[in-house]
Amino acid sequence: MTGFAVDIVLLPPAEVTEAAEAISLALADATGDSSILLNPENCIPHISLAMGCVSESALDPLGEALRSLACSSLPVRIRSEGASSVMTGSGDCVSGIDITPERALLDIHEKALSAMAPFRCQEATGMLLLLPGEEEDPPAYTYIQDYPECHAHERYSPHITLGQGAVEDIVYEIQIPEEFTCTEIAICHLGNHCICRRVIQRAL
Questions:
Q1: Full-model pTM
Q2: Domain of 95?
Q3: What are the backbone angles phi and psi of residue 11, rounded to the nearest 5°?
Q4: Three-class SS string for 169-195?
């Protein structure tokens, strides 16, 4: 591996993480699709701020930039709008917890994009973190590489992905907190479906 497909993320607090994991499990049980099943080991709940492919040598300077961002911008108050589902460009139905794009969050998003910009590499292959038996999913690279142009700035739609399928079709009793505070920014290694497979660095 010559580099890493990464996501700069906000890590939600424990009560939000636990609620997201429980709803994700209910969704997987109902649909039979566990390709996105949130858990602390290899499918980490998160709010994406910026994605890209970077070389291994870029991780430390990127981490330093994010530590500066964390010191100046955290903690940040987040407001949830509840769970909903959307159809992706590839025709999949994916559910998530929608996050209100308030000014403080948008500012962190823009600063994360700026921090990553000097380190992004455009040629990408073999940079996803795969589970045993998995093959690379080319659409994941397309989404990651197109992130600044297609999924950021005025197109930024903050959320916590829950899993495949329509959350409106399942019954769950888990309460999603309407407001919560994020205190951690992290660099995560991405896998297929742009899942955060592991935390590479935390910027506290």
A1: 0.96
A2: 3-203
A3: -95, 120
A4: HCCCCCCCCCEEEECEEEEEEECHHHC
